[in-house]
Amino acid sequence: xxxxxxxxxxxxxxxxxxxxxxxxxxxxxxxxxxxxxxxxxxxxxxxxxxxxxxxxxxxxxxxxxxxxxxxxxxxxxxxxxxxxxxxxxxxxxxxxxxxxxxxxxxxxxxxxxxxxxxxxxxxxxxxxxxxxxxxxxxxxxxxxxxxxxxxxxxxxxxxxxxxxxxxxxxxxxxxxxxxxxxxxxxxxxxxxxxxxxxxxxxxxxxxxxxxxxxxxxxxxxxxxxxxxxxxxxxxxxxxxxxxxxxxxxxxxxxxxxxxxxxxxxxxxxxxxxxxxxxxxxxxxxxxxxxxxxxxxxxxxxxxxxxxxxxxxxxxxxxxxxxxxxxxxxxxxxxxxxxxxxxxxxxxxxxxxxxxxxxxxxxxxxxxxxxxxxxxxxxxxxxxxxxxxxxxxxxxxxxxxxxxxxxxxxxxxxxxxxxxxxxxxxxxxxxxxxxxxxxxxxxxxxxxxxxxxxxxxxxxxxxxxxxxxxxxxxxxxxxxxxxxxxxxxxxxxxxxxxxxxxxxxxxxxxxxxxxxxxxxxxxxxxxxxxxxxxxxxxxxxxxxxxxxxxxxxxxxxxx
Length: 558
Hints:
Number of strands: 17
Largest sheet: 9 strands, mixed
Shape: globular
Helix content: 25-40%
């Protein structure tokens, strides 16, 4: 009941035979109580762009409307599993819960605080209340962090989360094969429940390895029901996420003349009328590599009308040599609301355009080198003043944790730097371990417009915290905490994960039943996908096992 009105009820709590009392309460809290049964809820006023210091005026030359405007699809609501109510997102099971992490090695990523060889972090509700070398006696639940390293949760700024049930399938594919075999192939066989399963599995995988914020680059939402499934999977996982609406496979017939799907308006109003949620929204645009420039201008205007940040692929292999950023600059549509993903093959002057416009960058070095995008642009971006963020991209060929991505980021840039004559005589390296950890935390938060909330262990920010077991042969003794986290840590050392003051993982184990459910529904999705593929003319040879080799996509540069 709410104000005397029935808004929802919970007839069955899934899995009660396995639940303890706290998990029953958790299951009830995760039910979506925000949609009244008897009348429609009014949408809150639409907020402005959320990236700090970013103000982009809409251009009349790039307005949305006329023949380019598509019909908004009917509103369809679909429930999947146990969703997290927006009212309760980011809140602990007990209001005003206080937790003290005591005697850990604290890497704050806040230069005003620095690192603490031994320190305490106090969490009150969903916020970090205090960070100090010794907070003394506090009325709080005490978590003994002796032998642990505390870091901010990692921020993954670009992941095609829906692809998680197909992990490993493209380990030996080129970028062109990925486009035909998966994005223009198996993707068309995804049902809404498969998109839900992929997002649930991918988000849980990220969360378990210490990624507390995930930008879901969702470019396989072919119908409104697919969108609803994608959002439901993110919410159920418990991760902090940005759902980046990327449309469906029919928008990727390169070069596409199809404008961005206007169902994005419904998604914005129905799911994300407020930006003050654990799961928020952005737009994932194709950009001039995969759509015409006119369509790109139209899509950017739509995103700005809706007050949404934009994430866009540029510089992926040969497609990136078509000067996508330069052509956007000529049309006057660059802005600080855009994150440019990859950037490998964009020209140096285009990187300066990104810097001058206040844009940000997201790099996925392991995918970029594995699929042939080109050398990671880490050093080139740093030279023009852009601190990149890091992303996993896709698990269809590579792993899904930030530790491997940080190591590859650092190793590849060191290799490029060390090609210079006299490199061994330099007084210092040009890219440090702290730089890379910054890319994976505070710089990632900045790219997502969330640096006021997360990315560092700063009092007043939300409590997204990861504890790594350092009293192990892998990390002990701790001589250089930042260097050891970047070069030696791995997902198996993630002992505790907290998101907005709420534990998702403790003592090395995920809480509740979400992991088991994620694995089960993803396995069912994988089996169903390949059964359907066997009945199609184009994908009769699609199979697991590692020996399926699709024909690559070949496209002329425009």
